[in-house]
Amino acid sequence: MDQLIKDIDIISGEEAQAVDYKTTPEENTGKTKKIYIESYGCQMNFSDSEIVASIMKENGYDTTADFQQADVVFLNTCSIREKAEQTVRNRLNHFNAVKKTKPDMTIGVLGCMAERLKDKLLEEEKIVDVVVGPDAYRDLPNLVNAAEDGRKGVNTFLSREETYADIAPVRLNSNGVTAFISIMRGCDNMCSFCVVPFTRGRERSRDPHSIVAEARDLFERGYREVTLLGQNVDSYKWSPEENNKARLNKKEEEVSQVVNFANLLEMVAQVNPLLRVRFSTSHPKDITDEVLYTMKKYDNICKYIHLPVQSGNSRVLELMNRTYDREWYLDRVKAIREILGDECGISSDMIAGFCTETEEEHKDTLTLMDIVKYDFSYMFYYSERPGTLAAKKYTDDIPLDVKKRRLNEIIEKQTQLSLERNKLDIGKEQIILIEGTSKKSEFELKGRNSANKVVIVPSEGLKLGDYVKVKIKDCTAATLFGEVIEINPAVA
Ligand code: SAH
Ligand code: SF4
Ligand code: F3S
């Protein structure tokens, strides 16, 4: 069964919030109890579910893909937009019916919605037994045990230190080729629309040794690509003094100086030239030329940057508290093009209809898209989140139909640009890493090129984890189609 219920390349506001979730796979190692986890939201949340599965595994639980079989059901939730929370509430209603026939089943809400609503969730959703925020997962076994004895529990303590650096994640939904590694947690930016600083707490960076060790271990187990994850990877910073308490792997060679993101990228790239390295998300205010030059120096660091702009208008960007303006953003794009060339993939996130956005200001987003020529984007209309700066300071005054129309214009523009960009690849030879089967045909496999574009190739003679040199023959706005030239060429 395909565990990934919905896998969309270009996400529009409504779709993204509908049913984009992952569930745990079936794993039976003879443990007495079973846990089912359903995960919503961003990659960091999916990555956290792997930490949760690891903690629960240590405490006597196997995973199941069928919640009806589970002793414990966790929903790892997202609060980013209102619809994301609504989806979870609908799921809780659904579980309610099952719980009537299985009263012993423990139901927990984890993640950002747990953090945002805390014990209010227990009051509002009667079937919930435990509510646990993103920094309190080590406490899960205790809370579940207490719930089994009839004591409901909440732990939404936000930590300044927790990075789960010592916990080896149980890889869920793994293709055995690509994996995510969390390199930091939390966010210290205060984008006015965003709930993340409230749900994830202060930014903290994870020990680089534990990151490199995780990448090395993955490589040795056959993985060929890691994506380093953080809300703002460019502000990754680890120093032996500040982070001394968090040092876990004392056997590793001492690091005597501060490790910034460019240094960390280099350390991971050096694990093996056959291990591809990706990262997400870059913040336009923080991405440095040093990072761009490090990307250029290593063939195995993929030439792709997710650089969310949110809006193309400087006044709106100021209201959003993004701390850069249109000119700054375009200057960073210029630096990417100068240092990494036209082939570097660039993608973005866009919000249509933020408070007070005029028609002219919306058009600035469209013209900026034309200048940057994004390969793809995640696009949303603004959804006010309680407690955020925007909710406190501004009126959510753009009518829903206008938000939706503006969003559609942005989506249309992006579809046109994606096709334009993809067409430039036709006739080119590129190296892709095979990571899965094509959704459409059993005789085809899919891989990604360095710029993060999906390339479909005939499957004959290929297996997952192969590097393949392909010649691009055709494309749509979402996909490239290639012909195999050489299997496992010398370079990644
Ligand atoms: N740290 C990342 C973003 C994480 S949230 C960054 O700074 O780029 C992912 C995306 O969700 C954001 O980039 C934004 O486009 C969107 N988003 C966040 N809050 C939103 C809101 N209140 N309404 C609509 N979209 C929102
Ligand atoms: Fe939210 Fe801004 Fe932090 Fe991204 S950088 S998570 S948008 S506050
Ligand atoms: Fe959602 Fe929390 Fe991620 S709000 S987008 S799951 S950090």
User: Tally of extended strands?
Assistant: 22
Q: Would you identify the regions where 5 or more consecutive residues have pLDDT less than 50?
A: 1-19
Helix content: 25-40%
Largest sheet: 7 strands, mixed
Shape: globular
Instruction: Supply the CATH class of the largest domain.
Output: Alpha Beta
CATH topology of the largest domain: pyruvate-formate lyase- activating enzyme
Overall residue-averaged pLDDT value: 91
Characterise this structure.
This protein folds into 3 domains: 13-155, Rossmann fold (3-Layer(aba) Sandwich); 178-423, Alpha-Beta Horseshoe (pyruvate-formate lyase- activating enzyme); 429-487, Beta Barrel (OB fold (Dihydrolipoamide Acetyltransferase, E2P)). 33% of the residues lie in helices and 22% in strands. The chain is built from 15 helices and 22 strands. The chain has helices at 13-18, 43-58, 82-101, 112-117, 120-124, 140-148, 196-200, 208-220, 261-269, 289-297, 314-319, 326-340, 359-372, 389-393, 400-425; strands at residues 21-23, 33-40, 61-63, 72-77, 106-111, 130-132, 153-155, 178-182, 184-185, 204-205, 225-229, 237-238, 259-260, 276-280, 304-306, 345-352, 376-381, 429-437, 444-448, 454-458, 467-475, 480-487. Strands 1, 2, 3, 4, 5, 6 and 7 form a 7-stranded mixed beta sheet that branches. Strands 18-19-20-22-21 form a 5-stranded mixed barrel. It starts with 12 loop residues before the first helix and ends in a 5-residue tail after the last strand. Mean pLDDT is 91; it is low at 1-19. Iron/sulfur cluster binds next to helix 7.
